[in-house]
Amino acid sequence: MIYLLLVFTPITIVLEFIHADHVVIFVIASIALIPLAKLIGDSTEHLSLHYGPTLGSLLNVTFGNAAEIIIAIVAINAGLIDLVKASITGAILGNILLIFGLSIMAGGFRYKEQFFSQENIGLQSSMLFLAIIGLAVPTILASTLNVDGANASIENQLNVQIISDILAFLLLAVYIGGIIFTFFTHKHIFYTQAHTENHKKGQEKNIDATAWTKKKSFLYLGLSMAGVIAVSEILVGSVESTAEQFGFGELFVGAIIIGIVGNAAEHSSAIVLARKGKIELSIGIAAGSGTQIALFVVPILVLAGIVMNQQFSLVFTPFELVTIFLAAIILNLIARDGKSNWFEGLMLTFVYIIIAIGFFFIK
Amino acid sequence: MIYLLLVFTPITIVLEFIHADHVVIFVIASIALIPLAKLIGDSTEHLSLHYGPTLGSLLNVTFGNAAEIIIAIVAINAGLIDLVKASITGAILGNILLIFGLSIMAGGFRYKEQFFSQENIGLQSSMLFLAIIGLAVPTILASTLNVDGANASIENQLNVQIISDILAFLLLAVYIGGIIFTFFTHKHIFYTQAHTENHKKGQEKNIDATAWTKKKSFLYLGLSMAGVIAVSEILVGSVESTAEQFGFGELFVGAIIIGIVGNAAEHSSAIVLARKGKIELSIGIAAGSGTQIALFVVPILVLAGIVMNQQFSLVFTPFELVTIFLAAIILNLIARDGKSNWFEGLMLTFVYIIIAIGFFFIK
Amino acid sequence: MIYLLLVFTPITIVLEFIHADHVVIFVIASIALIPLAKLIGDSTEHLSLHYGPTLGSLLNVTFGNAAEIIIAIVAINAGLIDLVKASITGAILGNILLIFGLSIMAGGFRYKEQFFSQENIGLQSSMLFLAIIGLAVPTILASTLNVDGANASIENQLNVQIISDILAFLLLAVYIGGIIFTFFTHKHIFYTQAHTENHKKGQEKNIDATAWTKKKSFLYLGLSMAGVIAVSEILVGSVESTAEQFGFGELFVGAIIIGIVGNAAEHSSAIVLARKGKIELSIGIAAGSGTQIALFVVPILVLAGIVMNQQFSLVFTPFELVTIFLAAIILNLIARDGKSNWFEGLMLTFVYIIIAIGFFFIK
To answer: pTM of the prediction?
Structure first.
């Protein structure tokens, strides 16, 4: 269904060639990204079915944010550092508040209460929180050293970049530790359900004969990634004039529009799963994606910045940092009891809306 | 007993007419407010007995903060915006730290441990936290846009007011959602105990023949509300010169004196209930009132501000915002295990004292 | 084993007399402090065996931070206020992140999961958090009153000192309340395990005939305290020129070097205990020491400042306050489920490293 939107990919390219209005290009390119990101996700998932549960899950986890990373790298390359940071903030918030909230609400309208393991949500919360500390330290440092001020010394800016580079490695190390923990040393805690679901999915696919072959999966993965690269280039080229024309700030465009388009939309399947009573999987996707962006995508982008000779630091704006922090706390307050109902979903969704309005007014 | 203090209402009015010293008027008016606020609460409660548990509870919940709202509206009308905000902060802190802490302590001196449902305290914490996010977003926005600074643009001030108005509607929507959740869709979780207590209360009253008639309840409700309006007008008129004379800051008078007088004192019955072993009810009052002020009174005042053409925004001072935030966290740390003891009560009470001292020194 | 390092005490004194290089003196004195702090701890523990469980535990608790206090008082006397505050921050972080993290990790490499009581960790978290509020209030006040600025009024500085003095008494009162709670009114919750362990320890010692006599314990306690005083004096005298020479900031030297040397190293036995499966004790030491520093050592130092006529306030730098706050939250997220594994230990340890790097770059 969503794949009908793939038609927007060639349209985007045509519009770019005929030099159409920037706003039109921006809107069409944004829509085009949604099915492309979804296609990367699906082809990775199909591919993973050919590799057994552990390797398959690893594949899934690693390529799960490929679209987000590609868009970000294209934008960093164009020097739109603040936009990328905002899109990361938006992707985290979109997953842990909006997708999570809508999932719980969708499930809650059908089931009075839904239950899920506290182990996984506890792990995700802790990892997310560690990542937040990893962003808070350089951000506070930058504000103490007055890095953004008019008379910021070059030495201080360099220091902030160095600490960001070091912390990026540390965050990646924790992320790898988390993979070893969940897929190897303690997989008995997380395995059962994930395996069963994967297995069932595999079976269903076999029965429906809809499981893609290895070749088909690779082909679609390649094509969709190429599509994301092309469309991202076009999107990034049109973003500034669009923002200007509408009076949107860079933060709003990054956090709310690109954050949703490049990442959260991909995970909208979580909502469908919750509706089917599979709240466990649903929560795994929403909370897991949020953690992964903070602990895997962000460090990757810092390292990409080094390679591309762009200063991509871990310094975020206070508003971004505080909202991610508050979002992580309310997620924890609401989810840690291992139960959910529609009102909890509504609260998370409203927190997202409140924060989104904040991003709209910050210019 | 407390109703003996009602004699201070006419005294206040007389003092105002003979133009007595402002400080004397302030003190007498403050004392006069305590029984009046209590009378509003009691007459609402008696009234609610005539309307069945659900409608009765709704009445109770809606009129529970009538005194606070009246005082605030009178003060907003007089342009004392900061004072009102401080009184809201003080009412929240007074309920979730002082009343809650004293209740737990009072109960704890008698019972080694008291137990209560984690469901309700979890719900209240989440709602309170959502309200805090609703205050944090415009407050951070205002500080980023430098709204208080000397060269604040009118456009930015307008933006802060617009975002406050929008968020007020959202907070009210969540509050209504919470009522639907607790009184309708999920009342089985919260019902049993509340119903039983209400019922028992109803019975006792019938037996003692002390339940007020509908007519009497309405009469007392009307009289006490009129009293609160009159006394509030007088109090508000004397507050500035009193503060000046004592060297108290507006924040201290609002947060500690008016916050206690207008709201927290009304809920002191929570302490008595805890002492009788009814910690569940006690906690419901203390935590519930805190949430209600944040999620119901605050938005109502923003909307009242629109009607009265006064700029009542959701922007609080950093000290107010941070202390409410820290109070919400320690409340959660202490209460989420569903158990209480005297030392937990002592800790909450001391946190209140620490913060009150802070308000005293901030001028 | 660690006592072999005691040889560094006379070496430090000799080096001081021959006016050796400041850096050499600093390094040697730092190393010398580790076994001295340990000796204070051990002799207190041996002494406590002679006084029954309750009095013994009280002794242990009170003298547990003697080394930290002595070093701090010597440094305050030398006017190194910021260094002492940083060393307190570092001692808290070192205990609740590094020692705690390494303990959990050490235990986790051997046992798949370790379990411990949620009661104690919940109590420690609440007390730690109360202390954080006690630091946050004067710190926010100071920043609001612009106390550090160029044109800070003397009146405001005085106010900050007065509030610090008052809060110090309140924090001490809570600390005493905590002792009454854990050792008297509710010792049944904390007693069993502590008693059993103490008893076992006592027995082992008796069997091994290694329990020190009362006299020996007092002698060693006196000698080690004298040693700490002497070495601290020398250390403090060399700290500034060492920091200068290496380009280390005062915050880094205080938080990371002195914080570890003066306190955390003493508690490294927690790691060994966790490895032996006694995670309960291990956690008691790590979390307990963190709380004790915040709620006992800090107020003692404020009072000592009054006596010594040095302005030792409760105002910390934003970076210190925020990192302690974030550390307390992640500790709670990770430990509140009463279970631990290697990855949780790794996360806490990495949070410590991330914050330590932050201290390195803040100059």
So the answer is: 0.93
